[in-house]
Amino acid sequence: MSKRRVVVTGLGHISPVGNDVATGWANLLAGKSGIGKVTRFDASELNCQIAGEVKDFDISAYISPKEARRSDLFIHYGIAAALQAVADAGLDDVADLDKTRVGVNIGSGIGGLPLIEETGVAVQQGGARKIGPFFIPGSLINLIAGHVSILKGYQGPSYGIVSACTTGAHCIGDAARMIQYGDADVMVAGGAEGAISKLGMGGFAAMKALSTRNDDPETASRPWDKGRDGFVMGEGAGVLVLEEYEHAVKRGARIYAELIGFGMSSDAHHITAPSAEGPARGVQNALRDARINPDQVQYVNAHGTSTPLGDANETNALKIAFGDHAKKLVVNSTKSMTGHLLGGAGGVEAIYSILAVYNQVSPPTINLHEQDVESGCDLDYVANTARDMQIDIAISNSFGFGGTNGTLVFKRM
């Protein structure tokens, strides 16, 4: 059977650069970094003491303080972004909305790590009686979708994919397929993360994966630059409302872009070290699913984490997937400003890709002052200044531990 068309009608955004879509997008275009010294806990004993923290976030704007106390921060971010997206799409104004045909797929790469850490300390100090009755539901990854479904009365599919840093992209792509094959008419989909804690940062620091540029946080995330020395942890959530095209048109919805392709692959190589062939195959699968040729793509929102190996590897993957056309691509890493949101990265970066298509502009990759061409990082990375340009088709890449890869393809309407 022919697949139904899927369009984006709502966006919700919580990140280090802003707690709504408009603020976040404006700060990205201005090249403003959201990275600074860690304030959430005392990070002085860690070799990395910087992160992209969400600032001035008030969960009481979305749910009651009583309900908020029953769940971890990643759930708060996911709920907030989801409710923003639903409001942006105007779903609450659709009088005849069939809520049995509306689903939610919002995941997280790590989930309730701060709550787990906090509860573990409490148990060590005071015994099992210190475990609260909401500890389990407060830290489970699928509870973002559970809460959103309950809050809005959505009775379609409700779940959350977990695939490390590819989570957000996988949730969006899989949700789109729910619509394409008739299991839902509308899906609220994306990813969230809130793992900036001593255990979370300490774990990545122990792997020597994080930047140690503690004296200058705003320049620490520098994809494809010679001085890059690791990624910077971020937090937040990015959520989309995906809708069947005819359903959206019938109700007069604003359409940001069409999601025309989704591709996945596995490196089958190593749990943490990437290979170029796996990501390239994921991109190729996405282009095949979109039924487009490589030379039809203008813009790539790259995974671009600012690690020495990862950045060069992704560049090689793009060269494999796009061939000679890779030199004509505009490749941007918004992680230079947000840091790496882990399971939330694919969600916020899908939003940035959609807005690039919708507004015909690429955000910059900041802190790129000495491009690492010796390592093969020789593409056009939109260094330091946003660029107005024609973008008919954009892709968004996400790669995760275990060698899991996901690519989304968005088309201008």
From TrEMBL:
SMART domains noted in UniProt: PKS_KS
SUPFAM superfamilies from the UniProt entry: Thiolase-like (SSF53901)
One GO cellular component term: cytosol
Keywords: Acyltransferase, Fatty acid biosynthesis, Fatty acid metabolism, Lipid biosynthesis, Lipid metabolism, Transferase
Domain of life per record: Bacteria
Residues forming the catalytic site: 165
GO BP: fatty acid biosynthetic process
GO molecular function: 3-oxoacyl-[acyl-carrier-protein] synthase activity
PROSITE patterns: KS3_1 (PS00606), KS3_2 (PS52004)
Catalytic reaction list: (9Z)-hexadecenoyl-[ACP] + malonyl-[ACP] + H(+) = 3-oxo-(11Z)-octadecenoyl-[ACP] + holo-[ACP] + CO2; a fatty acyl-[ACP] + malonyl-[ACP] + H(+) = a 3-oxoacyl-[ACP] + holo-[ACP] + CO2
Domain Ketosynthase family 3 (KS3), chain residue ranges per copy: 3-412
Enzyme class: transferase
UniProt cross-references to Gene3D superfamilies, sorted A to Z: 3.40.47.10
Entry's EC annotation: 2.3.1.179
Metabolic or biological pathway: Lipid metabolism; fatty acid biosynthesis
InterPro entries: 3-oxoacyl-ACP_synth-2, Beta-ketoacyl_synthase, Ketoacyl_synth_AS, Ketoacyl_synth_C, Ketoacyl_synth_N, PKS_Beta-ketoAc_synthase_dom, Thiolase-like
Function, in words: Involved in the type II fatty acid elongation cycle. Catalyzes the elongation of a wide range of acyl-ACP by the addition of two carbons from malonyl-ACP to an acyl acceptor. Can efficiently catalyze the conversion of palmitoleoyl-ACP (cis-hexadec-9-enoyl-ACP) to cis-vaccenoyl-ACP (cis-octadec-11-enoyl-ACP), an essential step in the thermal regulation of fatty acid composition.
Stated family: Belongs to the thiolase-like superfamily. Beta-ketoacyl-ACP synthases family.
NCBIfam families: fabF, PRK06333.1, PRK07314.1
Protein name: 3-oxoacyl-[acyl-carrier-protein] synthase 2
